[in-house]
Amino acid sequence: MTRRAVLRYLSHPQVLIDPAVPVPDWGLNDVGTARVAALADAVAKGALAGTISVFTSRERKARDTALPLAAALGCDCTVIDESYENDRSATGYLPGAEFEKMADAFFADPEVSTRGWERAVDAQARITACLLRIADMAPQGDVLVVGHGAVGTLLYCAQAGLPISRDHDQGPGGGGNVITYARATLVPDSGWRPMESLFNSGD
User: What domain of life does the UniProt record list for this protein's source (predicted)?
Assistant: First the structure.
């Protein structure tokens, strides 16, 4: 029986928060870097077996995640400009509690731009178009897409036929989660799971 090809959407793990640096330029912190290194090391033991192409958002934290994995897999890593996180440049960096309130509003009122943030419906349309483009352009086999938590959740809601809701978000922990889609249909197997679930990767 032929194994079905999958497309995995992986959110970058924990970042080094620096209010003096634009959010898209944040890199991974020590914890995030170690988690990526552990997954890259697990490739030799079968993690992400079958993956023949890697795609990433241009944001530094996504590239810091994608590049070591692509190197371990022996794959090219293609940047997809439109796959960035929801545009929050109108406010820039927000302290934790204030950011969480804004994120709640982003998901709760998807057709409203709160304080200039990109609307959730617009971010969802953008990331869904990106996924379709990647699935169309990637060679046959498994695909790894490295991106972000909010747009990844919007993508999941769209492909699972669910209304936009933060109930489907990654939850606490700083990212580093994965959703697996059937490549042929782009239907998700489940919601977010920790990236460590890929270590023995069948999945």
Answer: Bacteria
